[in-house]
Write a structure and sequence with these properties.
With 258 residues, the protein is α/β, with parallel strands linked by helices. It contains 9 helices and 10 strands. It has one domain: Rossmann fold. Strands 1, 2, 3, 4, 5, 6, 7, 8, 9 and 10 form a 10-stranded mixed sheet that branches. The longest helix has 21 residues. The chain is globular, with a radius of gyration of 18 Å.
Length: 258
């Protein structure tokens, strides 16, 4: 089974849509980035790739001049459109942005590690497509799983509690996680420049791309971007070359170069 089959099979279910449908709000690191690049984002034409059920939609719609949210899950887009009927939301895939013209946007955001749901070749294709729809000097903002994170390859575990109801719930989740882990671990990949891991997200239901800072910066350079900033999940700006092992995600801000 391919990475796409596993991940699309999860994200396009009513259960996944319901899980994300109740979420709204920006992460701390996203707030830091939006304020630092305030002058370039406010009033801009922004493409919100992987908008899901609309976690970021309301906030971005209030900031930008033109908002377009896309996701490859039709169920997610339906929920996003229902909850934010004043914002444009479309079913589309980061690997094929032919719905949009060259240079159509000033800013492209791909938050919450959405790019990590794609296989390696498709990841590179999405970086190229996002660059195409950005205007010259436009901003790309996205997050990705950090291969240097010390718990990246964690296994399911059952944590004891004296609360019997909580213990029962934990036991059920643990057994489900073990079942998912057994099914999906055979599809993991360990390449020199990246890993595809069946990590603990959603009880080990997904196959997730992990990459370190250096390789991600090289991918961006090869795709025609200049890296401006790198942040930890907590919002800490990482000095040049810093590769933290305590941050599960890294956020990148890059500019299209020509």
């Amino acid at each position: 089974m391919s990475t796409d089959q596993v991940n699309v099979g999860f994200y396009d279910t009513p259960g996944a849509a319901a899980h994300y449908g109740g979420r709204s709000g920006l992460l701390t690191v996203e707030v830091f980035i939006l304020f630092k690049y305030h002058d370039e984002i406010v009033g801009s034409r922004l493409l919100d790739v992987g908008c899901g059920a609309g976690r970021t939609t309301q906030f971005l719609c209030e900031w930008v001049g033109e908002y377009v949210g896309i996701d490859y899950s039709a169920e997610m887009v339906r929920i996003c459109s229902d909850q934010h009927d004043h914002c444009r939301c479309e079913v589309a895939d980061a690997r094929d942005l032919s719905l949009f013209k060259d240079g159509a946007f000033d800013v492209v955001l791909f938050s919450h590690n959405g790019i990590d749901a794609l296989p390696h070749a498709d990841r590179l294709r999405s970086l190229a497509e996002m660059r195409r729809v950005l205007r010259p000097k436009g901003l790309l903002i996205f997050s990705t799983h950090n291969r240097d994170y010390r718990h990246a390859r964690s296994e399911p575990r059952l944590v004891w509690t004296y609360d019997p109801c909580a213990m029962l719930k934990r036991t059920v989740q643990f057994l489900r996680a073990r079942q998912n882990r057994k099914r999906n671990r055979v599809h993991e990949q360990f390449k020199d420049d990246h890993w595809v891991l069946n990590d603990r997200a959603h009880n080990y239901s997904l196959l997730t791309y992990h990459i370190d800072r250096d390789v991600q910066e090289q991918q961006l350079s090869d795709a025609g971007y200049e890296v401006l900033d790198v942040y930890s999940k907590s919002g800490e700006a990482l000095a040049g070359g810093a590769r933290p092992d305590d941050s599960p995600w890294l956020y990148f801000v890059a500019r299209r170069v020509d």
